Amino acid sequence: xxxxxxAYIEYQSLEDWRGARDIIRCNSCFxxxxxxxxxxxxxxxxxLHIARARALLRCRLPSGRNLDIALVRMFxxxxxxxxxxxxxxxxxxxxxxHSFLSMDYVIRGALMAPVRSVKxxxxxxxxxxxxxxxxxxxDQ
Length: 140
Fold this sequence. Notes:
The protein has 1 helix and 11 strands. The termini are far apart. 21% of the residues are buried. The protein is globular, with a radius of gyration of 16 Å. The strands form 2 sheets. It has a 6-stranded antiparallel barrel with strand order 5-6-7-8-11-10. Strands 2-3-4 form a 3-stranded antiparallel β-sheet, with no helix packed on it. With 140 residues, the protein is mainly beta.
């Protein structure tokens, strides 16, 4: 098992169908600050599935094949609602449990902005305006 501090995710943009790439960072000391990026995950249930990467691992199997895995904390729907809601407002809470996720199911990176006015520190807004591809994915 080998641990990595970043991963390159290649995906096809919904905006213009061209290839795009995100860098996912997972580092306890990135410029003297912890940085654990969020991911958009492909799952069988409809809707947006978002997770925060806590570790990026490569497992070498006895067959010689490499298996890339992320240790993640999923984001679930939050019961908290902002005073001013807008179309497409996604508020999520980071769950406490960790799970393993095959990197084959990672679609792209996602940006989660912390909600400062809430007493719960694990509440975040999904920022869907980082680029046109993310806006289209969040609008589905």
